[in-house]
Amino acid sequence: MAPSHVLRCCQRALNWIPVLFINLVVGWSYYAYVVELCVYTIPNNAERISYLVIFHIFLTMFVWSYWKTICSRPAAASKAFGLPRAEKELYEREERAETQQEILKKVARDLPVFTRTAGGAIRYCDHCQIIKPDRCHHCSTCEMCVLKMDHHCPWVNNCVGFSNYKYFVLFLAYASLYCVVICATVIKYFIKFWTKQLPDTHAKFHILFLFFVAALFFVSILSLLSYHLWLVGKNRTTIEAFRAPVFINGQDKSGFSLGFKRNVAEVFGDEAKYWIFPVFSSLGDGLSFVTRLVHIDPEQANSVLQHNGKRPTVSVTMESGP
């Protein structure tokens, strides 16, 4: 039997197949659009140039956000969430779950941790040996605990979480717009080839297929984009949408929601000029989050989001609604 590290290397190589597929499709779409459509099919220079300029703008934003999503390493918890040496030794020696929980509760008192397991226990990862920060989950594929984990996406071969969720949403948005640009500019020549108004050339297959592929991808990507925009507006991750987070005082599916504007700001930042660019502008540090558990002045929410990343102290939280 092959050594386990060889199997892991093979698995990691196979994980890049979806990414390779996406890049091959994008590469072919570039050839079909630029060469077969703009160079060989469009007779008007002004139309050709305008198409090429618009196409390359959206292609650049699409590829930029896509590779930022791929290359952004998932954010991990800080050492502050690990057990001190003495408590760790006690935890590992202890066989009773109740006593282990008492050890975890003692350490968690000094951490900004408000969520619990479904049974009300402190969330602890035995693989990473840390108390899980709120909204943090262990990814078996990445083999680490990921801050504000949304899901592991095979199409980017990466975990989508605090460090790259904005990039992921922009990737979906620009992929949709990229498909819209292709469909809107190709459809005229698609109809001409389909109705025999243009002679059958080697460009015909590429243009007909390009329209169908772009339309198909647009429909599938738009549905996913719509879902994630809804999640942003509700301040939920995909995991939280399927399994509501459990707080000290019980389950609350809207426990992290601060209102639409502040929810959007948490992902995209508080400066609108950065929203459309795949540069990091999300608020906070991914370790602590404003919740709705206790009273604060709502006007303080934005400042809390901006400053809660300074150090892992107990964050100010908001009162739960009825």
UniProtKB/TrEMBL annotation:
Which catalytic reaction applies to this protein? L-cysteinyl-[protein] + hexadecanoyl-CoA = S-hexadecanoyl-L-cysteinyl-[protein] + CoA
Q: Which UniProt keywords apply?
A: Acyltransferase, Membrane, Transferase, Transmembrane, Transmembrane helix
Q: Which GO terms describe its cellular component?
A: membrane
The transmembrane segments are: 20-42, 49-67, 167-187, 207-230
Q: Domain Palmitoyltransferase DHHC spans what residues?
A: 123-242
Note the topology in the membrane. Answer: Multi-pass membrane protein
Kindly list the GO molecular function terms attached to this UniProt entry. Answer: protein-cysteine S-palmitoyltransferase activity
Q: What is its EC number?
A: 2.3.1.225
Q: Which InterPro entries match?
A: Palmitoyltrfase_DHHC, PFA4/ZDH16/20/ERF2-like
- Compartments in which it is found: Membrane
Question: Belongs to which family?
Answer: Belongs to the DHHC palmitoyltransferase family.
The written remark on domains in the entry is: The DHHC domain is required for palmitoyltransferase activity.
Listed name of the protein: Palmitoyltransferase
Q: What organism does the UniProt record list as the source?
A: Gasterosteus aculeatus aculeatus
Provide the organism lineage as a comma list: Eukaryota, Metazoa, Chordata, Craniata, Vertebrata
